[in-house]
Amino acid sequence: MSGVEDVRRDLEVEQSALDALVAPLARVDWDRATPSPGWTVSDQIGHLTYFDGTAALAITDPPAFADSADGLYTAALDASVDLDEYTLGPFRSLDVPGRLDAWRANRRRLGVAAATLTDARRVDWYGPSMGARSFLTARLMEAWAHGADIADAVGAVPEPSDRLRHIAQLGFITRGWSYTVRGETPPDGDVRVVLAAPSGGHWTFGPETAADTVTGPAEDFCLVVTQRRHLDDTALATGELGRHWLLRAQAFAGGPTDPPEPRRT
Question: Is residue 240 part of a domain?
């Protein structure tokens, strides 16, 4: 199985796991606030719906994707445009069955498009183009991270899986990006990451000679690099260099954003 095919299959499983969480929710639950400021459970799924659709377009019709991206960039620069309404408005206008149908339809489109990718393919996206495997890993990360927000909102506790390895690796390799997006220079020294996998064993990233090491559950690491948890609300252990990184870790594209405030005092 190729690298991109491995991620593609895990992406579909992750999407199905989130579907199993949201499909039984009552209408009132779709309106629940989530940890993402201003976003409901419905908005979390609407976000995935919009960008799964543009991801499918990026694979199948790059010129049409470029036009779509230009529209989004223009909207983002227009002070009179509510960007959430731009991306979520059509989704918000649907009833709950319609929202599920729209999300599933765009997931299917993405799945069909993703099946055509090879490891050597690059895909245009918002910002630099991405290798096919990284592109699908980012979609998996999005599904899992927004699912974490939804689980928090409805009081669910999803079982972590070894699909987290994709997100953990992405979190590790974006250490430099976490500084670049803030206009900062990373401190000198490598950081090694040693994570306890959900199924047992450990996942290790980085050299043995690193100046610092991050250790702890893989799920906690993924929650931190996707900014779903503050470092101090996890069981991760590290020294000053690792902490300096994890307090600004950002495994996703876009402008710089900050992690949530600690939940515990």
Answer: yes
